[in-house]
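Checklist before submission:
- one chain only
- standard amino acids only
- sequence pasted in full

Submission:
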Amino acid sequence: MATASKRYGSETPRLWTKPLRELTRETSLGFEAIDFAENILGVRLMPWQRWFLIHALEILPNGKFRFRTVILTVARQNGKSTLASILILYRMYVDRAQLIIGAAQNLDTAEETWQGALDMIESVPELDALKGAVSRAKGKRELALKTGSRYRIASTKRGAGRGFPCDMVLMDELREHTDWLVWRSLANTTMARPRGMTVGVSNAGDAFSIVLAHWRNKAIEEVDQGKTLGIFEYDWVWNIGDRT
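Returned file contents:
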């Protein structure tokens, strides 16, 4: 006989960078991001998504993000794209980021996250009222707010994003990066921004995933050293289903 639907998994990743101090509303903007997601966007986050936001958005006493680079590895079909859209919109609407760039080796993946963010905006009248110009051209999608914040899709060609100081770069499908051309071109755009952050999102890599492997190895070396690189690696997270 089937029982009620239950959740199975772990909200805590098997490999993760420890915080510098206890994470509270004073030491992490993740709590604010969760409030935005659940109270404004109306998205009920899964436990692992809440946990990740709290840890990834740790801040220093000077108000800057602790992590300049964040690597999130989690299996497919566990809410990565939804989480990415929420993080982008939080930084646009609440943190007032001026420019966010999304990229993926497969352009359709980057555009899927972009469309997901736009759908969230258009489902909330208060957020939609702040929406500015929207370009839906294939490969050149851009979303602007009346506040001046912009979210655009960058190509994966060499030099992508050059000349655009950027508050956040989100690179999806990091496992597919088999050379450094795109990472170096885009990640460098965040260096001049006081709260610049590069977020790499992926499922597990293989022998050709040189960028993901590099950051994973470096993060393991620094996992307890209080550096600016954070890794959050899940084997699997929250699956929902009936068990007999």
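Reviewer check: The helical segments are 30-40, 47-56, 80-93, 107-122, 125-128, 181-187, 210-222.
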